[in-house]
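Annex B.
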Amino acid sequence: MRILALPLIAFAAPALAQAQSAGTPADASADEAEAADTGEIVVTGQRPRGSVRGDITPEQTLTPADVRAYGVNSIAELLTELAPQTGSGRGRGGEAPVVLLEGRRISSLREIRDIPTEAIARVEILPEEVALKYGYPADSRVVNIVLRRRFRAITAEVEGGGPTAGGSAQGGADVNYLRIRRDGRLNVKLGVSGESALTEAERNLAPNPSGLPTSLAGNILGIRPGGEVDPALSALAGQLVTAAPVPSANPTLADFAAGANQPGTTDLAPFRTLRPRTRAVDGNAVYSRTILGDVAATANLGFNLSDSQALVGLPVVDVMLPGASPFSPFDSDVRVLRYDGALGALTRETRARGADAGFSANGEAGKWRWTLTGAYSYSASDTETERRLDLGAYQAGITAGTLNPFAPLPSLALAAPDTARSVSNTADLNGIANGDLFKLPAGDVAATLRVGIGSRDLDSHAQRLAGATASDITRRSANAQVNLDLPIASRRRDVLGALGDLTLNVNGAVEQLSDFGTLTTLGYGANWSPTPRLRLIASRTHEEGAPTPQQLGAPFLLTPNVRTFDYVLGTTVDVTAIEGGNPGLRSDRRDALKLGASYRPVAALDLDLRADYTANTIDGAIASFPAATAAIQAAFPDRFVRGDGGRLVQIDTRPINFARTERSQFRWGFNLSLPVTGTLQRRIRAAREAGEDSRAILREAFGDRAGQRRPRPEGEGPRPERGEGARGGGEGGARRFGGGGGRGGGGGGFGGGGRFQFAMFHTVRLEDRVLIRDGLPELDLLGGDAIGGRGGQPRHQVEVRSGFTKDGLGLRVNADWQSPTRVNGVTAADDLRFGSLFTLNLRAFADLGQVARRTEWLRGARVSLRLDNLLDQRVRVTDGTGETPPGLQPALLDPIGRSVRLELRKIF
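Putative membrane protein YgcG: predicted structure tokens.
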């Protein structure tokens, strides 16, 4: 293992140059990691390796020590942790960040998602405007990941856990192989995961007496909903009887009179799941190498298999008993309603399978860089939903007087289940070129050109008792985009230098869709850096967007017994929900504005401040169907079916177009990262300052390994290339990063330094309005209106991410808070208040190779303990009387609550 860069390691080099026996994995002592641990500031005149093109510098840069401090295992997990820093308010909502690899576009995240974090040399987070330089729309932030030049590791992980309230368990295991060399990369990963079902009974939910009274023993009701069962029964009971429990297999009229209007009920909680049972297998393989001399080519293949099973209640026996039946004590025909418990719960089973393939090629032609990417995705899903019994023969026997409906049920069979199948095929091919067109006094005019073609096919078919439905969505597309950056002022070139650096941007795109015609995008903006540490960005985008094939043609599904809160009546009911696509959706038109600022107060301190104002107006916005409020029902009366007494019995939840949505927000925050000197570093430094030999300290820490010699293993990289740094651009300074690598290890080298990190972001929503349809009142989601089942929109949201690592031990503390919301009812008593929510997540981890340095077999091992929602907090909903509606109980909104998870990981 090559040792350099760190003063403490340089002093100890004679003892450590051959610190490991051949064939054992080295600690992650890459030159990049060690240099980063020193916190050394290096003046450099060139851009760091793998930087993005253009004049926009990163808002935040993570060193290897920063990445280690997150205690995560892969790039995918790191992106999840970085969500507060990579979030954007510019898109339609929910957009993932654009991910680049070493300043180049990739075919999909699958190319790099499984790479262990130990292989990362640098991570850069950049604003949305950088996405334009790679042919993407400017609605997502950009994450650029730079890998070590050499790395090799086999990683094995196993984890398990579940909610502390019990009822469910989760687990998974992964095996990952990664080899990085200068000329290529090979990554193969296989993983399995699963989660057991969680039923309502395991959360002690309050029963919800909605719908017709039903029990395992059975009840009698009148033929007319809500009507009298039988005049003779009412006369005997001395009151109008609309329902009564079945008392025995051979009941008399007096037996029924004793239970008049006291129907029996059976709690369905054990037969309904809050979370389904799931199982999944996932595999991925990536191979990258240089071809044709200087073309970096990558190929990716992957697959996924999954299945799930949800419980949706008990089957219902609903039959008519004629008054003339020998088993009937009534003069009138009556209705007998009961559950059949012999068959167990009704289920919905879903089986999904998918395959992905992709490739990317990156090269240069003169001063232009070009990229060619292609991706293909196949997915198939089959769903079976059990909804009813086959009661034909049973009803015929009751009608004929040969079967007693009050006796134990005979063996009944389920009717054919509802089935749905969808098959999706997606293919894309994109070519991107980026280079300089000509020179202006302030610099080169940079251009990005993209052309692409695509294909989307979605075939779906649904079969149910009422008949079959089918949908075939075929979409062919051709698209092009151009982006121009025009430098106006340059501090370095002394062109209008008093302004600092100023660049104007203009971009446009056109897409021709076979099913929606021509859609266009136009954008423009400015990037101004009046001082080296301050950057201001303003941009505007006008964009047209089409619904996805899934929104148009997903298969038709009916889901029974979906617990829903009816805002109109203020009651909780079990309804049948219709799901699927809506072929009548229209394209939307979006107008987005962003004003952003980033500032580094002190050049030598890793503290970054950021503030963004974003405003979005979307005409014809495409959205999932909202909650059953009075305003929504007035706009879409055909989407709701109500039964006797106005009880809600069915909702069509397929997506819709709103007339317009208007949203604006202000988001500000900061990132702080400080180096922490490790104990071993401090001891060696003290020995050096005292003029003492540090080898005794190393022997004490590492035992015999400190004096062993070994051949240099594969994967130990060269010395850092001159001038490479983590930060470049206008500041002209950076932490030093080399091009070295290493075999996977415990992280941090021989006592590599730790890190203290703290990030906080506060989002203030200034406006959130929805116009459902022209001519209707506008809904204010910040002022008491709602379109979702979880209340209005919180005005304030705070996200905190913090961590501390030292000597192989680490602790992450993540906290999130959102302000309360309310939903206005018809009267004050109908108002609903959704309380504020504060969640606290902890993750403690130990790199055992550093904690127990003398124990060889623990090298590269890490154990992590995660506690999510430590305080077991959930949103509490109350009505005007202070009570919680049954359909909005905390455990329904968040079934998991506090959970614990243990993970063991070993790098070989």
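The CA atoms of residues 14 and 692 lie 14 Å apart. The chain is about 10% helix and 45% strand. Further annotation is deferred to the next reporting cycle.
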